[in-house]
Design a protein that fits this description.
This protein is mainly α and 155 residues long. The model has no long low-confidence stretch (mean pLDDT 76). Helices cover 71% and strands 0% of the residues.
C-alpha cells in the first residue's frame, strides 16, 4: 500500500465517512436520487415530444404536398376526352416523387434545426422550408393542363 491508498472494506463494514454523517446522509442521497429520477423522466418526455413532432411534420408535409400537387395534376390522370391525354409520367413518377419530398423534407429540416435552435424556431424553419419547396415546385413543375377555358369533363 502506498501512502494515499486506503484498504477496501468488506460489504458489512461501514465506512468512516458514513459514520460521521450518520442517518441524515442516507436520507439526503435518496432525495438526490428522487430529483434525478424526475429530471430523467422530464428529459425523456421532452425527447419523446420532439421525436413525435418530426412524425407530425412528416404527415403535415405529405398532406401539404398532396393538397398542392394532386389538383394540378388532375388533367393528367383524367385524360381529357376519352382519356387520350392521360400522362402516365405524372401519375407514376412525378406525383410519387413530390409526395416523397413532402414526406421527407419537413422531418429532415426539423432534425437539423433542433440541433441548433429552440423547438419553436425549428418549427418556423420547417414551415419556411416547406413554403419555399412548394414555391419552387410551382416555378418548375407544370403538368399538362386542360385544352382551354371551355373544357368540361364528360358526362
Amino acid at each position: 500500500m502506498s501512502g494515499g491508498d486506503r484498504p477496501e472494506k468488506a460489504e458489512g463494514e461501514a465506512s468512516d465517512e458514513s459514520d460521521e454523517r450518520g442517518e441524515h446522509a442516507e436520507h439526503d442521497e435518496s432525495d438526490e436520487h428522487d430529483e434525478s429520477d424526475e429530471n430523467d423522466e422530464s428529459d425523456e418526455d421532452d425527447e419523446l415530444l420532439l421525436s413525435s413532432a418530426g412524425c407530425v411534420l412528416a404527415l403535415a408535409g405529405v398532406l401539404a404536398a398532396a393538397a398542392y400537387a394532386v389538383p394540378r395534376a388532375e388533367y393528367s390522370y383524367d385524360g381529357g376526352f376519352e382519356g387520350q391525354d392521360t400522362d402516365w409520367t405524372v401519375i407514376l413518377v412525378e406525383l410519387p416523387l413530390i409526395l416523397l419530398g413532402g414526406f421527407a423534407l419537413p422531418p429532415l429540416t426539423w432534425a437539423a434545426a433542433t440541433r441548433y435552435l429552440r423547438p419553436w424556431a425549428a418549427a418556423l424553419v420547417c414551415v419556411a422550408v416547406v413554403a419555399l419547396g412548394l414555391w419552387g415546385l410551382d416555378a418548375v413543375w407544370h403538368p399538362q393542363q386542360g385544352p382551354g377555358p371551355g373544357y368540361e369533363r364528360g358526362i
